[in-house]
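ok trying this again, last paste got cut off
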Amino acid sequence: MKRNWHLALLGISAAMAAGCGADVDTEMAWDEGEVASVQQKEVFTCPAEIAPQVSSIKFEQELLLNHTSVVNDTWTGGCRTEWGVSCDTNQKAHWHFWYLMQQLAGTSNVTKFVLRWLESIEKWSHPVNGQTLTNRPAIRNFVIKPWMNLSSNCNSDKSIDAPENVNCQLNPSVAPFRLLAIVNRTDLRVAGEPGAIAAG
């Protein structure tokens, strides 16, 4: 995790809504194969009718937490943010990039899931939300190859789906990503369930 070639985690890009409500304009596409798009506004103060009851929102303390004591998890010695740190809590590495990827991959191979995602950035094969994205070939030399070279049984000159990488296993402890912020996504909250928190 603590390497000179750290890159910021390509986080989920979204605006945040305050606990008192938000002005949200949503446009959704339900056709198969299409991705719904959501446009949201950042909210820094509550609506006038309830403003006297609620103080102004402290963006850096309530919506976007990026203090070093949080993102470095100084309270537990990095138990939440570092992979492989010895600790006996149920928070072990829960703020780490690899833990998030495990949740997204489900029962799929996490190494293949992550590298296929990174390789898709190297050369986009389809438009996203009607936009043609620019290929990012430099991601192989700056992200993919260094990580694969520090991992087990990986040929960094080949795609993850190549026969040479059938036993490739990425090493989570040297992942080229680190936690930059924790975002309070109250706009994703479902009634009766805990609020949504996105780590990026």
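PB: full thing came through this time. The first helix runs from residue 59 to 63.
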